[in-house]
Amino acid sequence: xxxxxxNPSIYMFHSPINRFLIFTLALLPIAISSFAQQKKxxxxxxxxxxxxxxxxxxxxxxxxxxxxxxxxxxxxxKEGESxxxxxxxxxxxxxxxxxxxxxxxxxxxxxFRVEKWDDSQEVSYRVRHxxxxxxxxxxxxxxxxxREFVAVGFTGNSINPGHGGDIPKQDLVDNIKRLxxxxxxFSGDQVYDHRRHYAAWLRFGRDFGSVxxxxxxxxxxxxxxxxxxNIWGHNGKKSTLPGAADGGYSMPVEYVKEVERAQTSxxxxxxDPTPIERGIGTYYTHLNWGRISFAIIEDRKFKTGPAGMIxxxxxxxxxxxxxxxxxxxxxxxxxxxxxERQLKFLDEWGKDWTNADMKVALSQTIFCGGAHIHGRxxxxxxxxLDSNGWPQTGRNKAIAALRKAYAFHFAGDQHLATVxxxxxDEWRDSIYSFCVPSIANLYLRWxxxxxxxxxxxxxxxxxxxxxxxxxxxxxxxxxxxxxxPEKGGDxxxxxxAGFGVVRIDKKTRDVTFICWxxxxxxxxxxxxxxxxxPFTFNQIDNYGRKAFGHLPSLEISKPDQVVQVIExxxxxxxYTLRTKGQSFQxxxxxxxxxxxxxxxxxxxxxxxxxxxxxxxESKGKKIQVKL
Length: 627
What we know:
Strand order of the largest sheet: 11-12-14-17-19-18-23-22
Shape: globular
Largest sheet: 8 strands, mixed
Radius of gyration: 28 Å
CATH topology of the largest domain: Purple Acid Phosphatase, chain A, domain 2
Helix content: 10-25%
CATH superfamily of the largest domain: Alkaline phosphatase D (PhoD)
Number of domains: 4
Mean pLDDT: 93
Structural class: alpha+beta
CATH class of the largest domain: Alpha Beta
Number of helices: 8
Low-confidence stretches: 1-38
Strand content: 25-35%
């Protein structure tokens, strides 16, 4: 009787507390499912809903040789909306149209070009589309009269929350405004989505557009931008292997063109626009701004892939894990780095000092194997063929071309901030490089050599000093910002995120590299960069090769003249630079006769058959140069 009367389910349902619990438990799976679906639907690249007056997302520009090139980036246009836009500048309080351009629908870009641009004035501009959409910015005055030129560099813009990519970029934007740079430089991997460059590029523009619109900007696409984890462009061939180690491009040609158009169409015209294989364009070029001459290099486009070209030395064609391998075995004659076209460009650029006091190379990454640990603690590679330490012959040719112009190298991509002094035949005989840290670090790397560096200063960390990389390239580590080895902690500071600043003193020819962490006010009292920075060197230090001897001192009637030294036996230019002051003693590296050219244009003096000084003449003999 009791059993039939007492029904537990009825008792539980009639209890108010139990009714609440049953109701809550019944809804819990629905809530969890709804939350999971909602979380899954969050797309970091989702385009915001915009009104038609906001259809212009951002704009990038450069000015070179009195030509303004500006690319405006649009959100998708609707059917029936105009496919033309105009560029206007403010003059005497009124807007004046200076250019009109067609919208390129694939990627929604608008490339403007204005020749005979007056770069002696700062000018407000606006892009107009349709009746309502406008976007305003500032074209800066050419800073040719400024003593100090400031460039700010970035790389590796991951948006993955695990990398700190979801942390707002406002700290970077604020510091750019504080620094008031003369040039912004994004060296690559502005985009990490391998299939949706357009959406990710818009996201990049929303993050940085408020400063990019007001400062000349160089942006270079790298491997992730064009939709692959690594890239050896191999002159444009199609890659067919996972990881693309056979060389070439994985994504369709039109996708690659869209990426390059979005990121580089505002750069000065290409030095040689001849397309590579399959009609892919080129953008390597020269930018002169503020009397600083920049060589913008494509250090991936012509590089050959290692798969099938060299013996496999590890689980991947591009990873060498065998420390006993012979580095010379991978420096095969058919391997290319910059390619002959770009080496020719660097040779001519290095000799042309028109309106330039100093020279800088900008590219995706540095010319060495700049890391030992890859991906995680314990992930040691002996050599990484994705680095520009390989092929060694190509690497040495690139560095030799740059040191003949006394240029330094500003780059990124390594996910690890470093300063190296590079060597070809001896340590420290060539250029300095500065690799900036990632904005948000996708893939951790460490510089952690097994042997202590040689020729270190007292008390310096053993990871610094003279080393060789996995390809036996000589390099001297000056400063390194390694990630912390422990997991957890702040997703930016422990992953060594940040940005780089270069300050060029055009009067003294001193260059200062500064590496800043994220989320710091660089103008605040007590603000500190990463340990090892700032680092200062002189223009002359970019050709640190020891002299075999010297030519007579040049005593020049006018200061700061261009001097070129040519070895007569080979006809090769030894170097060209703009000297500081009115006295300069050329160094040379072999016996023989030399031709020395001093000045520019019509005011050019040539001295042939110049001989090395003997020990007795080393201080007394001079050449008087009247210009």
